[in-house]
Design brief:
The structure is a single chain. 97% of the residues lie in helices and 0% in strands. By secondary structure, it is mainly α. The radius of gyration is 32 Å and the shape is rod-shaped. The chain has one helix spanning 2-74. The termini are far apart.
Amino acid sequence: MQESTTLQKLSQKVSEMLRTYDELRMKNAQLQEQIDLLKSENASKEAVLSRMQDELTEKDREIEEIVNKIESILG
């Protein structure tokens, strides 16, 4: 009788562990999807930032050219 009870308890524990494992596996998959999405968003934002930095550099160059022209006219 006691063997039956021990076996039942063991079976319940194994079933509980399997449920927990499945829950954690699904949660892990969800978190991995979130990580992938955030990495994609980050890459997109980095591309925009890089483009904006290039544009800023170009505008700085244009401003410097304008300032040089003004100085040459006034100077």
